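Table S4 entry, histidine kinase.
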Amino acid sequence: MLFAVAGLLALVGILNDPLHTGRLLLVAACDLTLAVAGLLGPWRRLGRYAPGFLGLAGFAVLGLSTWSFGGVAAGTGPFLVLLYAWAALHFPRWILSLFALPATLAYLVPLIMTGQPPLVLGSAAVLMPIALAVAFLIEAQARHLRDERERLSRIEQWRAAMINTLAHDVRAPLGTVRLVLEELEETATAPQTKMIGAALRQTSRIARLADGLLDVQRIDSTGHLKLDRAPHPAHLLVKDALSYVREDADVRAEVDENLVVYVDKQRFEQILMNLVTNALRYGRPPVIVRFTRDATGDRLEVRDHGPGIPDHLRPRLFGQFAVGGDQGVGLGLWIVRQLAVAHGGQAAAEARERGVAMVVTFPAPPGDQPQQ
């Protein structure tokens, strides 16, 4: 792009200096040739520092340009600095230092050839150190950003490996625990059966949480989830999901028994459990679960009666790691939003006079008319 702009400016310069049309056409041709070479050259195969030869060629064309304008370096200086800035974004300092000699020659030789006074020649003593200093500053910042990007890439690889390992390795011991609990259930007394049943439900939930971790990784890597959607009675979905909530929790469900929703049952359970768990952890009872339908589709609302959420936090509440703290890492609501989007809906936080309502919308089942 830099060479293309230089070539176009050389063509525009013909309008101001028609006496040097031939020279300016030569400069434009050289710049545009370098632009095409920069765009189409097989630089990846030639090596990391191979594009540096474009810089050397660029300095030569700058010198030709100065000579073409009769020793006027008003355009050469800025483009020389820009060439150095481009080099600083891609090459280490030793290459920038090697550029100092050809850059200085490209600036001085045409001035000497056109008989410029010593004062003009002396401008190189100011321009070249400035160009080199600017390049070093840019190179340092670019190197810092590259190092930071590599560090974040390593962290991301470690995180992905940790999630996969945790999610996969937790399944084997869970399977063993489940088998033991099922055998104990066959010979247990009534009170024991109740406790074992609760343990089995929580074991199943941990297995689904492991699947959820894999979902996080899958969303990050592919950007989407595969859903198994089907019509389900809404009140049974909510009842089954809330069976995993501790018995002493003040959670109340208000769901029309005639409402049928079109969702992935397992993913819906993840959504509801994440919202209810958050409401119990950060809000105050009672927690109200409502599932309704209007003209826009189905609407799941989980409301608590706690202190609420500040206005400045609500827009980013469903972001990844947005509001993690001592009690969590900030993934629960992000997963809720991803699952809602996968269903074709949305997730949002709405303020209430007391507390906050987490709202997830779903499209109505195909062919269904909205309930009035």
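The radius of gyration is 34 Å.
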